[in-house]
Amino acid sequence: MNILILGSGGREHCLAWKLSQSKKINNIFAIPGNAGIAQIAECTALPINKDNFPSILEFIKNNNIDFTIVGPEAPLVEGITDYLEGNGHAVFGPSKDAAKIEGSKVFTKKFAVRNNIPGAKAYFFKKNDYEKAKEFIEGLDAASYPWVIKADGLASGKGVLICNSRHELLEALKDFFIENLFGKSGEEIIIEEFIEGFELSIMCICDGKRIIPMEPAQDYKRIFDNDKGKNTGGMGSFSPLPFVDNVLQKKILERIIFPTFESLKKEGIIYKGILYGGIIIKDNEPYLLEYNCRFGDPETQVVLPRLDNDLLELLVNAGTGNLGSTELAWSAKKCVCVVIASKGYPETFSKGDIIYGIKDYSNKSDTLVFHAGTSMDKGNIVTNGGRVLNIVSQDKTFNGAIEKNYNKIKNINFDGMQYRNDIARKVAEK
Ligand code: GLY
């Protein structure tokens, strides 16, 4: 089969790497891809926004592509699956209607409430309710903080703010409704209770009829060690999660994930693709934080290396409604990912810095280098984004995987590179 991967991050490099191991693969194409993906796929620089869906279809036809896998959320929310399927092309990724699960936090919260899916208590406000929202905040008990404020729409991971005081919450409200920092995405907001606990991600493969959970993973959202500093897209991850036993896993699936899939169906939404649950655990009880409509980044990078199934077969079967009685098989190895980011990330970051130490590296050992924000410039691999590289190692123990990662990182260098030193260390100590 010839396949097309849409996207340009570490997630998409990992997908391309895993798909390249399939017996059924012929050629892999990527739009736009990155310097690492280009080592295993033919990359073409085309935009993947709605205006360009017709050019993507033309590309698919011209290159005899049989199947497309959509990486990021934005084209899914804009309806790329509907567009391509409507033109006779098979896709892995949910329809526009189903992608609302990530595209609209208001939709998802209201859906969760009416279907009794456990989560934080939430209050909804539209832009013209600014005064009402202010009054609501002024009425909140000082002892009840923190509160969380969320933009309804997509905001590249920046639309969720945790506010520790009335002042912070009022300032955040202004950012949304007066300063318009989040544009259209912030025209409706949710103010929600904060749940204290630990988070995990569970990605499930769906074919419209069946939902198959993959092994859970945990990611690290803050830029600095010990969860300090600003939120990022994710600075590291690990899987499996030894602290999630069968009883807790069963609660997550039976109270949150399975009822969501069935309730979507009852409400007329046939979900195909990845349903990714962001779950928080408090006192051993799970609560839904959010859903995403695509593979997680960097969770994918620690889950797919442990998957023993043929990924192409799995994604094609899911995309065409044919998962049947498929079962997933997992390696018992521990997998850890450290993200290396650019100078300045997650705020304005530099681009074009030469990356030393990875040019001739091929992903053939237990340590993998997935490219995220990279490109080629005059024969050099250079930085081209906030998150630049993902170093992923597998080992019998977490300590072994951690050691392999940080040993590999010693050989990599670019101006201002930054990464966390504490990825998976706590879980290794347990
Ligand atoms: N790691 C968080 C996400 O993929 O949204």
Q: What does this protein look like?
A:
This protein has 430 residues and is an alpha+beta fold. It folds into 4 domains: 2-88, Rossmann fold (3-Layer(aba) Sandwich); 121-193, Dna Ligase, domain 1 (2-Layer Sandwich); 195-332, ATP-grasp fold, B domain (D-amino Acid Aminotransferase, Chain A, domain 1); 333-430, Glycinamide Ribonucleotide Synthetase, Chain A, domain 4 (Alpha-Beta Complex), CATH 3.90.600. The chain is built from 13 helices and 22 strands. The strands form 6 sheets. It has a 5-stranded parallel β-sheet, with helices on both faces. A 5-stranded antiparallel β-sheet has the order 12-15-18-22-19. It has a 4-stranded antiparallel β-sheet with strand order 6-9-7-8, sandwiched between helices. A hairpin with a 2-residue loop joins strand 16 and strand 17. Helix 7 packs antiparallel against helix 8. The longest helix is centred in the middle third of the chain and has 21 residues, at 246-266. The N and C termini lie far apart (44 Å). Glycine (GLY) is lined by residues 219, 234, 292, 296-297, 299.
What would you say about this model in short?
By secondary structure, the protein is α+β, with helices and mostly antiparallel strands.
